[in-house]
Write a structure and sequence with these properties.
The protein is α/β, with parallel strands linked by helices and about 325 residues long. The chain contains ten helices and 13 strands. The protein has a four-stranded mixed beta sheet. A three-stranded parallel beta sheet has the order 3-2-4, with helices on one face. Strand 2, helix 2 and strand 3 form a beta-alpha-beta unit. The termini are far apart. About 40% of the residues are buried. Bound molecules: pyridoxal-5'-phosphate. The site of pyridoxal-5'-phosphate has 14 residues, from helix 1 and helix 2.
């Protein structure tokens, strides 16, 4: 079901599952802020669990200890185009009877042991902002095979209207999360191009790998066993003490790069204030947020441009 953003997709799912005040959802601090904000919209408390080094996703080894009587769902995020360790997470969720909401906004067409991101849990959210693998300008999508949840989300998207309802008959409190028809038309064409766009990103990731693997001081992204990447960005890791300086130095050479995700969600000002989060609570996520450097990465990026990025990086490091 199409909606007008990835955030709207997440919000509809959280509301659709009936989560609210007093409930807790286990999620990751190492993500784009929307994956936790969707909980705050409904007064659900995010319980952050640290991530693991291979996929940068929520660490299954830490999830079990975070589950308590108020836990109502798991919300893993497939960051940078790679699935979390979903087998382990689903096993824990099933054992505790918890629904899994997948934030697949950065992982369209990624796979985990053959299963596509967003088809593993109870419901999932996709995003089609221009930086994603496919875009509709602004846009998003919900996937679920739960018929009742689907019908409820359809109503929430459309001002709480009932299915056969009149224009001015509203069954529940809803939102205007409808996707525009012109935007949806873009999306239809983009889905046709999507396999080629993802293949092109795969080619670029390999080309970067070839050029960067011999530079000491750069740690390249890994793909966990059983995973197929759908590259969203190309995240290299450098010495934390050098990262920000490198961003400025690269910029001076006309090369744009970025720190992702810095700061982590729990260290955003309003999360600190609301929940009392402090530095040091999720050490792996915090370290990654200080080491990761995102290089220029988009379909159409040329070999010579990647050569130049590698040459400049090598000289600087
Ligand atoms: C892009 C993104 C979203 C949603 O983004 P919108 O801008 O609302 O479409 C949610 N979660 C993650 C991890 C994202 O990268």
């Amino acid at each position: 079901m199409a909606v007008n953003s990835g955030t709207a997709a997440l919000h509809c799912i959280v509301r659709g599952l009936g989560l609210g005040a007093g409930d807790e959802v286990i999620t990751t601090p190492f993500s784009f802020v929307a994956s936790a904000n969707c909980l705050l919209y409904e007064q659900v408390k995010p319980i952050f669990v640290d991530v693991e080094e291979e996929t940068f996703g929520i660490d299954p080894k830490l999830v079990e200890a975070a589950i308590g009587p108020a836990t109502k769902a798991l919300l893993p995020v497939h960051v940078f185009g790679q699935c979390c360790q979903m087998d382990a997470l689903m096993e824990i969720a099933d054992r505790h009877g918890l629904p899994v909401i997948e934030d697949a906004c950065e992982a369209t067409l990624a796979r985990h042991h053959g299963q596509m991101a967003g088809t593993i849990g109870k419901a999932s959210a996709f995003g089609f902002y221009p930086n994603k693998q496919m875009t509709t300008g602004e846009g998003g999508m919900i996937l679920t095979d739960d018929e009742a949840l689907y019908r409820l989300c359809r109503s929430l998207r459309n001002q709480g209207r009932s299915e056969d309802g009149q224009w001015l008959s509203h069954e529940r409190l809803g939102f205007n999360y409808r996707i525009h028809e012109l935007t949806a038309a873009l999306g239809v064409v983009q889905t046709e191009k999507l396999p080629a766009l993802v293949a092109e990103r795969q080619r670029l990731a390999l080309a970067y790998q070839e050029r960067l693997r011999l530079i000491a001081g750069i740690r390249l992204p890994e793909t966990a066993e059983g995973n197929t990447h759908s590259w969203f960005v190309y995240p290299i890791r450098v010495e934390a003490s050098r990262r920000n300086e490198l961003i400025s130095q690269l910029a001076a050479h006309g090369i744009q790069s970025k720190a992702y995700f810095y700061p982590c969600i729990h260290l955003q000002q309003f999360y600190r204030k609301k929940f009392g989060f402090e530095e040091g609570m999720f050490p792996v996520a915090e370290r990654l947020s200080k080491e990761i450097l995102i290089l220029p990465f988009f379909p159409g990026l040329k070999e010579e441009q990647m050569d130049r990025v590698a040459r400049v990086l090598s000289k600087l490091i």
